[in-house]
Structures are given as structure tokens and as C-alpha cells.
Design brief:
Blueprint (H helix, E strand, L loop, with lengths): L16 H16 L6 H22 L6 H8 L7 H26 L7 H12 L9 E4 L2 E4 L11 E2 L2 E2 L6 H13 L6 H18 L6 H15 L10 H7 L1 H10 L16 H25 L2 H16 L12 H11 L1 E2 L1 H8 L3 H13 L3 E3 L6 E3 L3 H7 L4
Antiparallel strand pairs: 1-2, 3-4, 5-7, 6-7
Helix pairs in contact: 1-7, 1-11, 2-4, 2-9, 3-4, 4-5, 4-8, 5-8, 6-7, 7-8, 7-11, 9-10, 9-11, 10-11, 12-13, 14-15
Length: about 400
């Protein structure tokens, strides 16, 4: 079995004008997301999106853990309910792999289509302590082990799709690496289209016994970031896919189709069907970029923070009210990105001792963050606050 074509090429090797235009629009709109904000504020948004991406990617598999529960798990505050605790551990594993990928992309050690990288993503996801409940899967009434980082050695059927034989998987994955790596020398538009196409081809191969969906979306994230799109990380494709979960799975199934006639490309799989899948994926990306564009506007973003602080201080929430002078501090941090603690006292005319007390509270309440006890402070978007800054996120 083969999975050609690797992208929805027309007969002359180009892409349809519709797909090319959608990809170009994606590039421009994504790049515009960062306008007006300091790098530190954008990092706070990206940090929130780690949680959002994790939540929605797992929700696609019917195993979502709310960002507030993930936040508690980060503090080692696990639920007493065994199922909920297991899902918190699953979410932490997902978050840790995301961060490992991010660091690898920054230092150039990650190539998203390489087999060694793909093995490592799966291994890091499944081998951590506490993941034992997810290290087996029932298939056709039989319980099979899920070996971290190892390709499957059993036949599998996913919906109507009979995945390639396990004996074919190593060769198919070697081809996957070779063909998609070769696209790294193309322009950003082409890289995006190939990245989205590769997502289906990976799922079609179904190389692992379990975890293919989550791993495929982690790989897609890496490939999209690797393409050089500015602003990627300020929107989440997994959120869009989860909110259109039935359509997502429908288009994955459509792209499984075999070639239909001489005008349907030159590979064994349908070029037209893959084109429909890529159009759906591009549309999903644009929808998420448009969503974040509405709520990341500097003026409305700041006013929603003000509203959140005011409502907290009026005791409209179950949580402890934010301290007086919080608005003064947050407004200064939004303006400067981050501030030394003594500098904040001078800029806001708040006495040092009072400032120390307020900052202690804001750090405890996940409104601010710092890398050390005396280091500069910057914005942090807590799971609770995120719902007010980004409605329905």
C-alpha cells in the first residue's frame, strides 16, 4: 500500500488557486495577531494556549481535562477520583511533550517528519509515571499492550479504514520521512499545505497501536511551527478540530478514498479527496485565527482584564478577591511587558511594603508570574481568567 500523493497537486504540480489563496490568507492573518502587544504578554497568551491545545486534543479522543484541572495538576494537586486523576496525568504528559517539542524547534534539534522524532514523541507521551492505565488498548475484544515509541505489530481497523499491515509500517514511515522532509526547501505556503496533508497521511498509516490521533496533532503543531508562520502558537488548531469533531473525522475518512478515474491525480489515493481535506483544515485554521483576532485587540484585551479585576474585587467569583491596586499594577505590566518589583513601586506610587504584599497575592492567584522570588514580574493568564479574556475558549 502507498499513500501518494503527499499533497493535492494539480496535473502541473501546482496547488489549486483556492487552496493557495487560503494558505496565503492564513499566513497574513496569523502574522497580524501579535500587533500592539509586548513579547511577554504574547508569551502569556501562548502559555494559555498550551493548556487549551492539550484540552481540545484530548477532548477529540473523548478524554478532555479542563484547563483548571490541568492547572491544579501542575501544582501536584490531583483529584481523588481515579478517572479524573488519570486524565490529569494524561494532560500533563501532553503538556510536557508540547514543551519538549517547542524547545527542540527553538534549538534546531527537532525535524517534524523524522522517524526518530516521531518515535520520541510517542515514547515521551506514554512512558511517564502514571500512564499505565493508557498503556493497553482493547481491539476486537482483545487487550493489546501499547509500547511507548514502538510501531504496532498488529492489524488494526479504524472506522471503515483498514490500516496498512504492520509489516508495511516501517517502510511507509521511512517514505513519509523522506517525502515530507523534501518539502522543507519550499516556500511557506507550500510548507503549510504539505503539513496539513501529512496529518492525514500519518493517520492513514496509523503507525502505533494507540495514541495516533494525539501524536499526529503534536506532529502537525511541530510542522506548522517549523514552516515559519508568524503568530503560530497564538491560536490552536486542535480547538477548531474539536469544535468540528464530527466534520474533522468525516474529512479524515473522505481523504482515505482511492483514486477515482484518470483525472484524480497520479497516486493510489484520491487527490480530490485530499484537496477537500486540506480545504477543511485551512478553513479551521482561519476560523481560529479570526477568533483570536477578535479578542487579542489591545484595547478590548485590556478592558476585559479591567472588567475581570473589578468583578473579582466586587466578590462576584467564588475565589479570593484580587487586592486593591491590582489594576494599576496590571496596566503598567501590559504597557512594559515585565517590571522589576522596585520599579513597579516607583511607577505606580505604591509603597514598597504594600507592593510586596500585593505581588505575593497576585503570584499566588496566578495573575502574575516570575522566574524567581525577587525577579521581574509579568502577566500570567489563569484558567479562571481565560474565560473572561477569551469567551468560549
Amino acid at each position: 500500500m502507498q499513500f501518494a500523493p503527499i499533497a493535492p497537486y494539480q496535473h502541473d504540480g501546482s496547488f489549486s488557486s483556492k487552496i493557495a489563496e487560503m494558505a496565503t490568507e492564513l499566513i497574513a492573518k496569523s502574522a497580524s495577531l501579535s500587533g500592539g502587544h509586548t513579547p511577554q504578554t504574547l508569551e502569556a497568551v501562548k502559555e494559555l494556549l498550551y493548556y487549551v491545545n492539550c484540552y481540545y486534543s484530548n477532548k477529540i479522543e473523548s478524554q478532555g481535562t479542563k484547563p483548571s484541572d490541568i492547572e491544579r495538576a501542575m501544582k501536584k494537586e490531583f483529584s481523588e477520583n481515579v478517572k479524573e486523576r488519570n486524565l490529569q496525568i494524561l494532560a500533563l504528559a501532553h503538556l510536557n511533550v508540547q514543551r519538549w517539542i517547542e524547545n527542540g524547534l527553538k534549538n534546531g534539534s527537532v525535524s517534524p517528519y523524522n522517524e526518530t522524532f516521531i518515535h520520541e514523541v510517542h515514547k515521551r507521551f506514554y512512558e511517564v509515571d502514571g500512564m499505565e492505565p493508557f498503556q493497553s488498548i482493547e481491539h476486537q475484544g482483545i487487550l493489546y499492550p501499547v509500547m511507548p515509541g514502538l510501531y504496532r505489530d498488529k492489524e488494526v481497523e479504524v472506522g471503515r479504514h483498514l490500516a496498512p499491515s504492520p509489516f508495511e509500517v516501517p517502510g511507509l514511515m521511512a517514505t513519509f520521512e523522506s517525502l515530507y522532509n523534501a518539502t522543507s526547501q519550499t516556500n511557506i505556503t507550500s510548507k503549510i499545505i504539505h503539513a496539513l496533508s501529512s496529518h492525514h497521511r500519518f493517520v492513514w498509516i496509523h503507525p502505533f497501536m494507540d495514541g495516533n490521533g494525539r501524536v499526529s496533532r503534536l506532529i502537525l503543531d511541530a510542522a506548522m511551527k517549523h514552516s515559519g508562520i508568524l503568530g503560530y502558537g497564538l491560536w490552536s488548531i486542535s480547538r477548531g478540530l474539536s469544535r468540528s469533531n464530527d466534520r474533522y473525522k468525516e474529512y479524515l475518512s473522505i481523504a482515505d478514498q482511492k483514486q477515482i478515474g484518470a483525472y484524480d491525480g497520479r497516486g493510489p489515493l484520491s487527490t480530490k479527496a485530499l484537496e477537500e481535506f486540506v480545504e477543511f483544515m485551512l478553513s479551521t485554521c482561519l476560523d481560529q485565527i479570526n477568533y483570536m483576532s477578535r479578542y487579542l485587540r489591545m484595547d478590548t484585551f485590556a478592558s476585559r482584564i479591567e472588567d475581570y479585576i473589578a468583578r473579582s474585587q466586587k466578590k462576584e467569583f467564588d475565589s479570593e478577591p484580587l487586592p486593591d491596586k491590582t489594576s494599576n499594577i496590571i496596566n503598567m505590566i501590559l504597557l512594559k511587558g515585565e517590571c522589576q518589583r522596585g520599579e513597579l513601586s516607583t511607577l505606580t506610587s505604591i509603597p514598597d511594603r504594600t507592593m510586596t504584599r500585593i505581588l505575593k497575592k497576585l503570584l499566588e492567584q496566578n495573575i502574575l508570574q516570575s522566574d524567581s522570588q525577587k525577579g521581574p514580574v509579568r502577566l500570567k493568564i489563569s484558567a479562571h481568567m481565560s474565560g473572561f479574556l477569551f469567551p468560549e475558549i
